[in-house]
Known about the structure:
The chain has helices at residues 4-8, 11-21, 28-35, 39-51, 74-105; strands at 26-27, 55-60, 63-68.
Amino acid sequence: MPDLFSILAEPSRRRILDALRESEGLLVKDLVAALGLSQPNVSKHLRVLRTAGLVSESAERQGRRYRLRAEGLRGVDAWLDPYRAFWTDRLQDLGDHLDSTRTHEGPPR
Length: 109
């Protein structure tokens, strides 16, 4: 399996994923128009994203339609999970600190 972080490091691929996230599916020509990239460049990035399991492809009369496969991002989500816990704890500590400061100093002005 390809390294998702290496794949997502490419800005054009992230832009493609963003465009697909906002749509139920786009044709290659729609992505070319939306992103201002050449058709061969978009196709190259879509091939990488498809191989990584981040997008699905279906053939239609108008061309190939691509859709985001959110389950392909599970590895990234799992990697981020401990960081979410880290920040949740830090934000809770900050909230507790602010609450204790308000109690000692009176209501905010």
